[in-house]
Amino acid sequence: MRIDPKTIENVSKELYIRALKILPPDVKRGFDTLAAKETSSTAQNVLGTMIKNISIAEATENLLCQDTGIPIYNVTIGRGVQFGEGDGTALKAALRKGCERATREHPLRSSIVHPLTRKNEHTSCGIGVPVIYIDHADAAEGVTVEMIPKGSGSENNSWLKMALPAEGVDAIKTFVVDCVLDAGGKTCPPTIIGVGIGGTADLCVHLAKIAATRALGTQCADPEGAKLETELSEAVNMLGVGPQGLGGDSTAFAVHVELAATHITMNPVAVNMQCHSARRASATITDAGVTYGF
Amino acid sequence: MTHHHLTTPITEAQARALRVDDTVTLQRTLYGIRDATQIAMFDRGRNTRFDLAGHAVIHTAPNVKKVAPSPQHPTGYAPVCIGTTTSARMERFTRPLMQHYGVRLVIGKGGLGAASLAAFGELGGAYLAIIGGTAALETTWIEAIEDVDLDDLNPESLWRFRIRDFGPLRVAMDSHGGSLYDAVDLKARDKRAAVLATLGVKSR
Q1: Are A254 and A182 members of one domain?
Q2: Which residues of chain B register pLDDT less than 50?
Q3: Which residues of chain B from 52 to 91 reach within 8 Å of chain A, CB to CB?
């Protein structure tokens, strides 16, 4: 099939705005699960305010959080899809244009600056931003675009440790617990704690981001990774950091793990967190049209 | 635990009356301030024409819309979504804000550190915690953007908001050495060894 870059541009714009306004149903359920088990009255109060905010954002069609984040687009392309002149280049340009249009037309706060001059072009775009990942799937029909406005409060707390093979899984577990302690309330807990294990240094950090932005209720495909997710999810909520770091049981919705094979000399672990405003939106474009979801 | 209704600007005595775990609702005026604003003011010698004495500042950079200036929108900016950012990045600016400008209250999320706690104690101030990530709610407490200074730094300008029933906010750091964040952190670190033991981690 052939997809008009204009369609991609419109989808890109729409996804950025939708992601900022409507929290995915799995995250809403995550709040209910935490609130049902929370034993601290302060934490109950904080969770109650967060839940109230979700309804106000929907009722007033406003943004959930003022942080428009760093825009990330994850694109999965099915078989035989073309994007007009330039193909891959046209796709990237259209995503970027849509991101810029969302910023100008809604309008949204552009949170993106040049890293040295700190100049803000007020487009939410810059060198290498929006961040765009493109993948291919044989079975998929059409194109799926996932949009994640990644909040900076949680992104500013990101870690990589090149642990040693002799330190084993213990180093991974200890590192995750220490990252949660260091983050305290700065990451806007309750968070989804993404843990990347293995790969190269850069792949490890990327895996942590994939884990942090995965839907709640999903599991690591690797059985050992899934086992670790369950253990760590229970453990971090015993620390008592609580929502907003003000104390309580609800420090994290879950710990998510993503794995890659690694080198015999290496034992890398990375942590990336997603704040309680765990925003994402997706769209599937097929011959039948555009379908929006999460 | 007391609930305080405060109309800004406030006095030193009012700031010192606040204790950790009290709650506060603010009225009238609130100033929005952020990383770039304070880098400009304290590292690059820029001054503001606003009188911040006795006032509250909130760590924010809002989403705004350009509109035609009117009595409701005197600056030509209408609020779209106004929320709060992580305070910890701006730790080193608490003391100069209080010392040079007389600021009494800092509103933010995630808390501030030891230097800010010392400044609150010496100069008479407090940190009020807002629930981060609840900007849709927070926006309903803001009536208008009354004025803006240092707007070349937009969105990290110095904003003056007119507020109504802004809160409840929780006093999380006070002028008596109390910090809810320190208390929670200390307790959590005490649990570290036990939590690692449940994970089967052996100490080597």
Answers
A1: yes
A2: none
A3: 60-66, 80-86, 88-89
Order of strands, edge to edge, in the sheet holding A131-136? Answer: A131-136, A70-77, A143-150, A281-286, A289-293
CB atoms within 10 A of CB A268: 23
Are residues A105 and A196 part of one domain?
Answer: no
| Chosen from B184, B186, B190 to mutate, greatest number of chain A CBs within 10 A | B184
Inter-chain touch A188–B86, beta carbons under 8 Å: yes
Q: Which CATH number fits domain B3-179: 3.90.1300.10, 3.40.50.11750, 3.20.130.10, 1.20.1290.10?
A: 3.20.130.10
Closest CA in chain A for residue B195: A235
Is the residue at A40 inside a domain?
no
Q: What pLDDT, in 10s, does the model give residues A183-202?
A: 999 999 999 999 999 999 99
What tokens appear for A222 in the block?
A: 């690797």
- If you average pLDDT over residues A218-235, what whole number do you get? 98
* Cα–Cα distance measured from residue A65 to residue B136, given in angstroms and rounded to the nearest whole number: 7
Say if B167 is an interface residue toward chain A (CB within 8 Å): no
Q: Are A107 and B82 within 8 A, CB to CB?
A: no
Q: Is residue A220 part of a domain?
A: yes
Please report residues of A whose CB lies closer than 8 A to that of B181: 184-185, 245-246
Question: What is the rounded CA–CA span in Å between residue B75 and residue B78?
Answer: 8
Domain ranges of chain B: 3-179
